[in-house]
Amino acid sequence: METPLEVDVATAAQLLREGALMLDVREAFEVATCAIAGSQHLPMRQVPENLPDLPRDRLILVLCAVGARSLRVTQFLRANGFERVSNVAGGIVAWAEQIDPSLARY
After folding, report:
1. Is residue 15 part of a domain?
2. For a designed S-S bond to 82, which of 13, 19, 77, 99 qualifies (C-beta 3.0 to 4.6 A apart)?
3. Which residues are catalytic?
């Protein structure tokens, strides 16, 4: 099955429960405000130098605030041979609205 370019937060939450890696590409000050438990923080600008450390055998869900930066990272990863990577549409803002209302907003 082909990995979709984007998934909504409800789908992302299910995939996370099934073992996907949530890669949070926001800046440290954003993650300090709110984060999804179990996610891996890697600021967008550090993704290129960390490619060897990212798993190629596991679905990666890329997350940012609203989905714009994470879409760029998703496309970058796909261009660099990562086949199982999807953007989380709506980002942590949508996650806080639909999945975990206890998260702080910014």
Report:
1. yes
2. 77
3. 64
The pTM score is: 0.96
Rounded Cα–Cα distance for residues 33 and 36 (Å): 11
Domains of the chain: total: 1
| DSSP H or E segment with residue 85 | strand 85-88
User: What does the pLDDT look like over 19-66, one tens digit per residue?
Assistant: 999 999 999 999 999 999 999 999 999 999 999 999 999 999 999 999
Residue-by-residue DSSP string for 18-52: TT-EEEE-S-HHHHHH---TTPEE--GGGTGGGGG
Does residue 34 lie in a domain region? yes
For residue 38, tell me if it sits in a domain: yes
Q: What is the CATH number of the domain that holds 58?
A: 3.40.250.10
CA–CA separation, 64 and 62 (whole Å): 7
Q: What is the widest separation between alpha-carbon atoms in the chain?
A: 36
